[in-house]
Amino acid sequence: MDGQVARVRLVRTEAGQRLDIPPGFVLGGDEALLRQEGDRLVLEPVCRPSLLSVLDGLTDLDETWPDIADPRPEDVRL
User: What is the pLDDT of residues 5-37, one digit of tens each?
Assistant: First the structure.
């Protein structure tokens, strides 16, 4: 097993069970995925993709855009 190890207390609640994550183990963000692997529970942060990675994954639109009249604005200085 790699990395740090900490012993934590599990607390039963009406809604299920919770644990307090020690400061050295705090995850970033406000969501995480919890999955079971045999007898282990694995908790990993949900990483939202950056805007640049989303934009990089987009394909070019194959559209012909109509010409739009774009007159010069009137001078509004007094």
Answer: 999 999 999 999 998 999 999 988 889 999 999
Q: Which residues contact 43 (CB under 8 A, 6 or more apart)?
A: 27, 32, 33, 34
Pure H helices in the chain: 51-56
CA dist., res. 21 & res. 10, Å (int): 10
29 contact partners, CB below 8 Å, separation of at least 6? 45, 46, 47, 48
Q: How does 22-57 read in b/e, with b if 16+ C-beta sit within 10 Å?
A: eeeeeeeeeeeeeeeeeeeeeeeeeeeeeeeeeeee
